[in-house]
Amino acid sequence: MLKLLATFKKDLLLLWRDRVGLLVLFLMPLVLVLVVSLVQNNVLQATGQSRIEVLFVDEDQGELGWQVLEVMEASPGLQLLTSHAGNILSAETAQALVASGTYQFAIVLPSGISAQFERDMRRQVGALFGFGSVPADSVAVEAQIQLLFDPAVQGVFRTAVTSSLQYALLGLETAQKGKLLQQALSTQNFGGAHSPDAASEQAPTHLLRTEAKAAGDPARALRPDAVQQNIPAWALFGMFFIAVPLAGALLRERQEGTLRRLLILPVPYRVLLAGKLSAYVSVCLLQFGLMLLAGRYVLPWFGTPVLEVGAHPLAVAVLVFCAALAACGYGLMLGTLARSYEQASMFGAVSVVIGAALGGVMVPVYMMPEAMQVLSSISPLAWGLNGFVELFVRGGGLRDIGGNIAALLGFFGVTALIALGAFKYHSRHGG
Amino acid sequence: MRAAISDPANRDPAKAPMQPMLRARDLTLRYPGASKPALAGLSLSVEQGEIFGLLGPNGAGKSTAIGVMCTLLTADTGEVEICALNLRTQKNKVRPLIGLVPQDIALYPSLSVRENLSYFGTLYGLKGNDLRQRVDECLVMTGLEQHAWRRVQTCSGGIKRRANLAAGIVHRPELLFLDEPTVGIDAQSRHLILSNLQELQRAGMTMIYTTHYMEEAQQLCARIAIMDQGQVIAQGEPEILMAAQGCSDLQELFLHLTGRSLRD
Prior knowledge:
The complex is a heterodimer of chains A (431) and B (264). Chain A has 431 residues and is of the alpha/beta class. Chain A folds into two domains: 2-43 and 223-429, no CATH class; 52-214, abc type-2 transporter like fold. Helices cover 63% and strands 8% of the residues of chain A. The longest helix of chain A is centred in the middle third of the chain and has 33 residues, at 155-187. The radius of gyration of chain A is 29 Å and the shape is elongated. Chain B is of the alpha/beta class and 264 residues long. Chain B has a domain at 49-60 and 96-258: P-loop containing nucleotide triphosphate hydrolases (Rossmann fold, 3-Layer(aba) Sandwich). Chain B has helices at 62-69, 91-94, 113-123, 128-141, 157-169, 187-202, 214-220, 238-245, 250-258; strands at 22-29, 39-46, 51-55, 77-82, 85-86, 98-101, 175-179, 206-210, 223-228, 231-236. In chain B, helix 6 links the parallel strand 7 (175-179) and strand 8. In chain B, helix 4 crosses helix 5 and helix 5 (157-169) packs parallel to helix 6 (187-202). The radius of gyration of chain B is 18 Å and the shape is globular. Classes of the chains: A alpha/beta (431), B alpha/beta (264). The interface between A and B is medium-sized, with 26 and 35 residues.
């Protein structure tokens, strides 16, 4: 234990003495979090070429459903799905699929909405142009179309889909009004109740209203904004960069000859590695903690919402620890497989960026082409990020992130074993 | 010349060791993909308390031999015994008994000299006052007390070399391997290091010393082995070997035995 602690202390001291490296290690993710959160918080940007899959549930089975489906399908960025696994979707299934994050959006048309829309439309047009006597309050009856969204969906995408739906419904309403007006004009059935004053007093009200709400348990879901999603994402990205200095430390020991001295010690090499790992995992934990503090206390100065970490701090701690182990395991593997520091730093940095891109740190996974979505499942950053989204956005707990924890620990196990294997190979062959 | 060094031949027979400190028999080792073996049947015997010189041209197999004898590498065939402990089966018992001063400055550059010594001392099981005392002794012995808190990266070549030696002896090993410990330093630092080694020998430490400086070997070593192509081609006391080959100094003997053609 003393030897492990000595190695832990030595590696912390080495990291501490490399002030520039340490500054980069802590400052880089902080700057990333700051910039990306601010940018995504304020700018609604184009969402790219990929089509968002939206579940469509038509419980009404009337004319309106077909019209909405047709108009929404015409939107370039959307693809509507009416069935899942060979079955026609029900509202409950759609809600469950969205709540679990399998799909990001569902549109639900309730039963009877077509008839209600038709009736309200006739009343409103009649009231405006005087072909019937309709009490003013009855025209305000609104049909409710539900737009369910995954709380993990970033605001920019939610806005895009909501706008598409509202635009489609407005188009339908306008077309329907035009049709009714044309009928009225052709029959010249104006009646006596109409006057220009009455028309101006009763300005047309939108009859097809949408209600957007998060799928899943509303008591659990947290506020889905850029801060909730970007801070864990970019902090995770920064954390995985620990692989570069860790690999560098291992390579320096090999290149500068310190490893030769360490290898003849009466201490198993795994104890020395455990000491080194403890030091670097501690740095990762500190780094992540600082990112969370920044999200809570620094970013709000720049006008972003305050970061909420959910009701399960233990689950957050466990996930951060497992992600730190995975990041350090990757560094160990890199440090034992690479032949030079240049190799490790270049490959390490690029591979972390690729892992982050695949993992949904830069672009949400659901916005990626299908092939990339499949590839995304092999990125440890995706496992970590999905876990944080579950905790920070969907309000999940330890049980909900069991799979993510297992995957991260598995990754650590595999990388550590590869590192030990490579190390033994080098030792045997004098490499 | 070698007046300060006790010659095993002149030692009191009553105190003569019964068992050699190190015995290597028929060591062979071939690196993967190499056309020739790095060790091709190397055999040596090193007596307790002596400084044994392992000489040879570049690529002769000296560093590989040191690597095998200090448990860094495993020979394909052959056996090594240190203090009568077999290296293949009792590696963990051998390791606390040996020390290594590698050719590279095997220290952490951003740690101070004292921090490096304390770290390696701790890994050898030293702690508390024992550790501090051993570190202080090593610093005094190698003339580094004034530089104890300097980071290694800011030290001169001579200080680094002396710190490298100090890190190898902080745990008082029975057998110390020195792989060219005086490369690239000035005459003053070299003189101090050689004096340190003689002092350690007087304290009973056994050393296996590789160097390309023949005058150092002649000054320090009671016995030498000259290696070439992974084998020992001559072994014994320098004077006897020189006389046998009609050579006036060790350099002449070395060139006579290993030839004048370049090796790398």
